[in-house]
Amino acid sequence: MILIKNIAFIITGIHHISGIASATALIANELSKTNKFNITLITLTDRSDTQFVNVSENVKVIKIFDEKVNLKLRLIEIIFKLNRILNDNNFDVVIAPALIFYILYFASWKNKKLNLIAWDHASIPIKKDVFSLKYLIRKIAAEKSDTLVVITKKAKSVYLQQYKKSKKIVQIYNTIDELNDGKNNYNLNSKKILSAGALDNIKGFDMAIEVARIALAEYPDWKWHIYGEGKEKENLQELITRNGLENQVKLMGHTNKMKDIYKDYSFYVLTSRSESFGMVILEAQKNSLPIISFDCPYGPNELIKNEINGFLIEPNDVEEMAHKIIEMIKNPNLRKNMSDKSMVLSGKTNKHNIVSRWESLLSNL
C-alpha cells in the first residue's frame, strides 16, 4: 500500500512574473502527476483577474488573500490566516522560499508534526552583511527548517560556513520544461543579441549599454534586445539615447512569450552584478544559445563552461565583455560550436532528473 503524503508549497503569488513562482509551480505540477503526493499551492497575496504562472488542475490552490496586499502591513494577519490553513489541513511537509520562510515558521510554531523545508532560490549574503535583515531572515530559514534546499553548490558551501546550526542542507538545481524536441535549431544567421530580466540595479543593464557602446560601434547591423520591466527603465532609456544607441539597443518591455523568442537570437548576454542561478541562462541553453556572462556570485559558473558553451567574464569588466561579444560576432563557427555544446551541458538540469531528486527528498522525510 502506497502512503500518499500531503505536500504544500507556499509562494507570494501567481499573478505576476516571478522566477520563484515559476520554479515552484513546475515542481508542484510534476509531483502532482505521481501517485505519491497530494499537492497544494498556498499563495499569500494574489489577484483573481490575472495569472502568469501555469498551475496544473491536479494542484489545489489556497489563496490567503484574493487581492494584492502589502505583506509588511498585513504580516500578522497573514501569519494567523496561514496558521489556520495549516491547522485545517493534514499536511506532512510544507515548503516555502527562504526569504518568506519566517512567515511559515511563526505560523506553524505549535504544529510540531509538520516537516518544514526552506527553499532558497536567491544569492546569499556574504559575511559583511551579517547584520542585514536578509541575513537574519536566512538565518531563521537555515536554522529553523528541517531541511534547507539550495540551488547551487556554491550556495551550499557558503551556507555551511555561515550557518553552523543548519540541520540538513540539500542542493538541487532548478529546472524548466523542455523547450524543444532535443534538436539544435540554432539560427546562425541571426544578428541579434538577447538579454532579459528586471530593469533594476542588480541586473546591470547600465553596464550592458556601456558594453553595447563599445562592441556594436563597428557593427551597425547588429541589434541588442533587452526584455523586462522595472524601476530603472527611464534611466536606461536615457543612457541609450545619450550614447546614440537608439537604433541598436532596444528595451522591449515585458513579454508572455519569452520561450518563443530565443530562436530569433544569436547569443545571450548576462550583465548581472549578482545572480542566484539564472533561469534565463538555463532557458537560453535549452534553446542552444551561447552565453556571455559576468562570473558574478553565485550561479553562472555552474551553468557556463568558459570557452566551451560561452564566456565567463570577470565581474563588471565592461571592456572584456565587449571584446568577447566582438569575437562572437566575427566568428560564426565559434557561435555554432558553442551552440552545440549548450544543449549537451544543460543535461544536468534535465527536468526528469530534478523532479526525481525532489521525489526522493520528500519520500524520505
From TrEMBL:
Q: Which UniProt keywords apply?
A: Glycosyltransferase, Membrane, Transferase, Transmembrane, Transmembrane helix
Gene3D superfamilies xrefs:
Glycogen Phosphorylase B
Species name for this entry?
Halolactibacillus miurensis
Q: Which GO terms describe its molecular function?
A: glycosyltransferase activity
The highest taxon in the source lineage is Bacteria
Q: What is the lineage of its organism?
A: Bacteria, Bacillati, Bacillota, Bacilli, Bacillales
Record flagged with keyword Ribosomal protein: no
Which Pfam family, an example, fits this chain? Glycos_transf_1
- Domain Glycosyltransferase subfamily 4-like N-terminal, residue spans: 18-177
Q: What is the name of the protein in this document?
A: Glycosyltransferase involved in cell wall bisynthesis
CDD domains assigned = GT4_AmsD-like
